[in-house]
Every structure is written in structure tokens, then in C-alpha cells.
Amino acid sequence: MNDHFEVRTDCEVPVATVSDSDAQPSFLRVTGGYIAAVLIASAIVLVAFGTPTDGYLKAFRFVFLGCALTFGFGLPGFIVTIVLARVLHLRQWPFFIIAGGLDGFVALYLLLRQPPPFDFCLMVVPGGMAGGLAYWLVAYHRRIATT
């Protein structure tokens, strides 16, 4: 196992960033990463669509429906991304950001059953990219505080 530590001393608490190129995230990290990705992607898309302001219950339903749709329709692309990352040993954040953007497009295509309009792509693809980064931060990026 190749651990590379970079110690930052410009902080109040020194932080070491662990970069382990051969490590596979655990099932718990993968699951937590997917949940974080869904929440972040849904939040960005819902901000782009505009959340209803005429009542808390209607806004809650809107947010819940957005998260449920993102969770369900994003899952096939997420599984493909995880399999590709494991088979090809891809651990870098750009891979997951690009895969998240593509997954957002594929999820929108699965939802609409036709090529999505360009306006929807401008809302969904950035959400997927942010979700890909959120997944990488939870599943792969590890920070250890040193004393």
C-alpha cells in the first residue's frame, strides 16, 4: 500500500491528506457517497428549477420528489461509474465529476424517454457534476487530523 502524506502547517490543527492509490472505498463509504451525491445534485437542480414558496408542505414534497427521482434515475449510471472506477483503477476526482455530469444527462434521458431539451441539460448536468465531486469527497478523499 502506497501512502503519501502531505502535512499542512498553515492551519491551527495540522492536517495530513492521505492519498492511497490502491484503496477501494468500503460499502458504507460508497453508500454514503451516493446519498451525498443525490442530495447535492438534487439541491442544485431544485435551485435551478426554483422551489415553490407557497407553503412548507408543497416545498417539502417538491424537494422529496426531486431527491427520489435523482436517487432512482441516477442509480444505473452510478453503478456503471463504480464498476468502471474499480475495473480501471480510477480514483481521481475529475473522473467522478465527468461521470456525474454524464450520469445527470443519462438520468434525464431515462426520465423523459427522449433526448432532453438543452435547457434541462443546463440544469441537470452541473448538478450531476457537483454530485460526482460530493461522491469522491465522501468515498475517496480522506483527511486525518494530526496532533
The gist of it:
The chain has four helices and three strands. Helix content is 66%, strand content 11%.
Q: Which overall shape is indicated by the principal axes computed on the Cα atoms?
A: globular
What is the CA-CA span between the terminal residues?
24 Å
Approximately what portion of the residues adopt beta-strand conformation? 5-15%
> Rg from C-alpha positions?
17 Å
Summarize the amount of helix as a percent range: 55-70%
Class computed from helices, strands and strand pairing: mainly alpha
Query: What is the number of helices?
Result: 4
In the predicted model, the low-confidence regions spanning at least 5 consecutive residues are: none
What does this structure look like?
- It is built from four helices and three strands, in the order ββααααβ.
- The protein has helices at residues 27-49, 56-87, 93-112, 118-139; strands at 3-8, 15-20, 142-145.
- The chain has a three-stranded antiparallel sheet.
- Strand 1 and strand 2 (15-20) form a beta hairpin.
- Helix 1 (27-49) packs antiparallel against helix 4 (118-139), helix 2 (56-87) packs across helix 3 and helix 3 crosses helix 4 (118-139).
- The two termini are 24 Å apart.
- The relative contact order is 0.20.
- The model has no long low-confidence stretch (mean pLDDT 82).
